[in-house]
Design goal:
Layout (H helix, E strand, L loop, with lengths): L1 E3 L5 H12 L4 E5 L6 H5 L3 E4 L5 H8 L4 E4 L7 H15 L3 E5 L11 H16 L2 E7 L10 H6 L2 E2 L7 E2 L4 H13 L6 E5 L5 E2 H12 L4 E2 L4 H8 L5 H16 L8 H6 L6 H7 L1 H4 L2
Parallel strand pairs: 1-2, 1-4, 2-3, 4-5, 5-6, 6-9, 7-11
Antiparallel strand pairs: 8-10
Helix pairs in contact: 1-7, 3-4, 4-5, 8-12, 9-10
């Protein structure tokens, strides 16, 4: 039995969708059953409750051999993921797949990558067989800018001239599915990127090309970003995201990986294809 967490989010939801498409049976922990009605209708065994609740996690882990650890970024993420690891070990889980990030390295300076790295190290020391899946910026994050792209012809984010190797969550999920359904992945850390390094000026150019009208990237000052998001994210999370975006601005990413191609035998989704697949959301 496979256990998934994070199935009502972007990557976890896509992983669940692809496993269902392959006819793979799995269980999922969800906080709200209403948000997982489609999974329930598809025959997924749902355990309803909070991942911070050890009793809920123990119930969900009963009989599980493989698990996906994918929790939302937050102040308690590290503690909850370490608790999950301990409970998974006690339950006899044989393989733990941790969703981390490319920024999660030993010398990480910002809160979210530091938390990911701390959990990676904790899992490695636990004795459970593990695989780390480490993407960077998600193309799906651009969906939040659909309104401004459509109505104002502009993309505004607090990443300055920073660069990313942004990947589509469909590809990230495909790696998770590959790890769960084939062998040879234990003890591996998979860094996932799309096919090209892009600045957000490049992103605006791709939108211009495919929408047939000029889309401008306007870097957003960090204080403006903080003000806009102060009622959306709790203070710790907002500060952590701001630090992560500042790091993208100041350091960025300078390379892509061939991990997706090697594991799946196909090319990763490009930004052009992502835009084309979601054209109706961006087009005025």
């Amino acid at each position: 039995m496979i256990l998934l967490t994070g199935v009502t989010g972007k990557t976890g939801g896509e992983t669940a969708k692809q496993l269902l498409a392959k006819g793979v049976k799995f269980r999922a922990i969800v906080r709200s059953e209403a948000k997982a009605e489609a999974l329930k209708a598809g025959g997924v065994d749902l355990v309803v409750g909070d991942l911070a609740d050890a009793t809920v996690v123990r119930k969900a882990l009963d009989g599980v051999e493989k698990a996906l650890l994918l929790l939302p970024n937050g102040k308690t993420q590290e503690a909850n993921e370490k608790q999950f690891t301990d409970l998974a070990k006690s339950a006899g889980v044989k393989h733990l797949v941790k969703m981390s990030s490319m920024e999660a390295v030993a010398q990480a300076k910002t809160p979210i990558p530091r938390a990911h790295w701390a959990v990676e190290e904790y899992i490695r020391a636990s004795g459970i067989a593990w695989t780390m899946v480490k993407p960077n910026f998600f193309m799906q994050n651009l969906l939040a800018s659909a309104g401004s792209i459509k109505t104002q012809k502009r993309l505004s984010l607090p990443m300055g001239s920073g660069t990313t190797g942004m990947a589509d969550v469909r590809d990230i999920a495909a790696i998770c599915v590959e790890v769960f359904t084939s062998s040879g992945h234990v003890g591996r850390s998979y860094e996932i990127t799309g096919p090209e390094i892009l600045s957000f000026h490049d992103v605006a150019e791709r939108f211009t090309e495919l929408l047939g009208e000029r889309i401008e990237y306007v870097p957003m000052p960090m204080d403006v970003f903080r003000e806009r998001m102060k009622n959306v994210l709790e203070p710790w999370h907002l500060a952590a995201v701001a630090e992560l975006f500042r790091e993208i601005d100041e350091i960025g990413l300078d390379h892509t990986t061939d991990t997706f191609r090697k594991l799946t035998g196909r090319e990763p989704i490009s930004l052009r294809r992502f835009i084309q697949d979601h054209l109706a959301l961006f087009k005025s």
